[in-house]
Amino acid sequence: MTSDSGSVEPGADRLGALADDAVLGSTGYLLLKAGVHVGHAIEQAMRDLGLSMRDLLVLSFAAVLEGMSQQELSERLGLDPTLVVGLVDGLEERDLVRREKDPDDRRRNMVVLTEEGARLRSQAIEAATAVQDDYLAPLSDQQRTVLRSMLFDVMSPRLPWLRSS
Amino acid sequence: MTSDSGSVEPGADRLGALADDAVLGSTGYLLLKAGVHVGHAIEQAMRDLGLSMRDLLVLSFAAVLEGMSQQELSERLGLDPTLVVGLVDGLEERDLVRREKDPDDRRRNMVVLTEEGARLRSQAIEAATAVQDDYLAPLSDQQRTVLRSMLFDVMSPRLPWLRSS
DNA sequence: TATTGTTATACTCTATAACTATA
DNA sequence: TATAGTTATAGAGTATAACAATA
């Protein structure tokens, strides 16, 4: 972050358009960077609420999927089941979520949102939405709709639950 | 990956549209997931060439930025300078890149692409492009252009070098 | 016998602190 | 005195293996 001579900020000379590089200017790389940046931004916003982004995702899945097991949660999150244990532990300690034995299969823990959890989730959604709006500020409402639709089309084959349930 | 009854694949009942959730269906989350998925896909494609995605990025920056120092590389990659050491080490051992003392400031190591590095970079670009094409298959050429342009607009404020140099 | 959830352990990745050399 | 690069070390995050309860 110094202002010395040979740093990143400077000349804009040296070579034309890094953005023209087949990798650095590619849609894929931009997508990757965008994803990482949005992730960090949301993560930071969640910190103010004492949550991680993963916590928010757990609250979200729990809110939408009735009787969701930890197993299923692990699949949805794309996370090892052993990590889900700790995740749910943390949320349960704070009464945002509780484990309920599935009566039909008592091996399963259903992860269900508490009232407190629902309340905090509302706040978290608000914060996350604000971050997103700020992030997408350069785009018009119409453009955002187009962007979401395209991302949807691209991701649907990879996230089957986007279409089905 | 079992085919039991209560798993992810099944009913498509239980609740309408996970995609309507304010978080799980948001542009930001789709962006995040898309970025991660593309990243994994490229990472895997690079493995066949004995490279990591980071390796490819180093080769790319080295190809485009003349006299790039490790410091600058670390800023561009958004990576700690201590990590860059190992990265460059690995590439230098395989003669894909070499360190040259900057004559104007002999503290600086300029990371410069070798012929071998340029060759492998070409192959890597080919592979990465193929992955990307496959990834964006659901979109028309025109849509891809629009997508790239929108990502560009969104990322420009955060990656200053996208516009300048 | 197979599966869910759990714990304990090992491994990988990343960041921190301290050092050398240049400026 | 400050900066580029390096090394060694500690920490965080993740995966692996083994176990208990249930099916």
Strand line-up in the sheet with most strands of chain A: 1-2
Q: Helices and strands of chain A: which structural class?
A: mainly alpha
Please name the two chains that share the biggest interface, counting residues whose Cβ lies under 8 Å from a Cβ on the partner chain: A-B, 79 and 78 residues
Query: Any idea of the CATH topology of the domain at 52-142 in chain A?
Result: Arc Repressor Mutant, subunit A
Give the termini separation of chain A: 47 Å
Query: N-to-C SSE series of chain A?
Result: HHHHEEHH
- Tell me the number of strands of chain A: 2
Number of separate helices of chain A: 6
Strand content of chain A: 5-15%
* CATH hierarchy: architecture of the domain at 52-142 in chain A: Orthogonal Bundle
CATH class of the domain at 52-142 in chain A: Mainly Alpha
- Outline the biggest β-sheet of chain A: 2 strands, antiparallel
pLDDT below 50 for ≥5 consecutive residues: which ranges of chain A?
1-13
* Oligomeric organization of the protein chains: homodimer
Output the radius of gyration of chain A. Answer: 20 Å
Care to give the gist of this entry?
The structure is a homodimer of 165-residue chains. With 165 residues, the first copy, chain A, is mainly α. Chain A has six helices and two strands.
Q: Could you characterize what this model shows?
A:
Two copies of one chain form a homodimer. The first copy, chain A, is mainly alpha-helical and 165 residues long. The first copy, chain A, has six helices and two strands. Chain A has helices spanning 27-47, 53-64, 70-77, 81-93, 115-135, 141-155; strands spanning 97-101, 109-113. The model of chain A is unreliable at 1-13 (pLDDT under 50). At the A-B interface, helix 1, helix 2, helix 3, helix 5 and helix 6 of A face helix 1, helix 2, helix 3, helix 5 and helix 6 of B. The structure holds a DNA duplex (23 and 23 nucleotides).
